[in-house]
Amino acid sequence: MLSKEKNINSTTWSAPAILYKIVTAENWAKTKSSDRVWLDASDEKFIHFSTEDQWKDVAENKYSDTDWVLLKIDTTKLSGKWEWEWNTKQTDKWFHLYNGWIPKAAVIDWKKSWDPDWTELYE
């Protein structure tokens, strides 16, 4: 993971090799018959990603009222412009991908929130 002091405008900057994306169960169902991951309207301007330490907050704050799927993403298979940006409260930085999409081939693992053993994700 990048340190907060790292200059993201450096030509050597890149996203971590693995990031996480949460999608709704409905979008995951659409993804199964597609070559790309279906995303929510909130990802129109840029795609929101989480680190291993951040995705639980996203699940609890944004997806608590719906079934969701956690995707483990190989970022080396993505194209677009990466930015590491502050949230609106300026309390944490998040990875955002501009002008890109997530090919289904970039998903290296997934977990459905409604699986009986889904709580293992929180351990």
Write the layout of secondary structure elements.
Layout lengths: L17 E7 H7 L15 E3 L5 H8 L5 E7 L6 E6 L6 E6 L8 E6 L11
Antiparallel strand pairs: 1-3, 2-5, 3-6, 4-5
Name its key features:
123 residues, alpha+beta, ADP-ribosylation fold, 3-stranded antiparallel sheet, 6 strands, 12% helix, disordered N terminus
Write structural notes for this entry.
The chain has 123 residues and is α+β, with helices and mostly antiparallel strands. It has a single domain, classed as Alpha-Beta Barrel (ADP-ribosylation fold). Helices cover 12% and strands 28% of the residues. The chain has 2 helices and 6 strands, in the order βαβαββββ. A 3-stranded antiparallel β-sheet has the order 1-3-6. Strands 2-5-4 form a 3-stranded antiparallel β-sheet, with no helix packed on it. The protein is globular, with a radius of gyration of 14 Å. The model is unreliable at 1-12 and 119-123 (pLDDT under 50).
Quick structural summary:
The protein has about 120 residues and is of the alpha+beta class. Helices cover about 10% and strands about 30% of the residues.
Helical segment count: 2
The proportion of strand residues reads 25-35%
The counted number of beta strands is 6
**CATH homology group:** Protein of unknown function DUF952
What general form does the structure show?
Answer: globular
What's the architecture, going by CATH? Answer: Alpha-Beta Barrel
**Annotated CATH topology:** ADP-ribosylation fold
Tell me the number of structural domains: 1
CATH class: Alpha Beta
pLDDT averaged over residues: 86
Adjacency order of strands in the biggest sheet: 1-3-6
Decide which structural class fits the backbone. Answer: alpha+beta
Oligomeric state of this protein: single chain
Low-confidence stretches: 1-12, 119-123
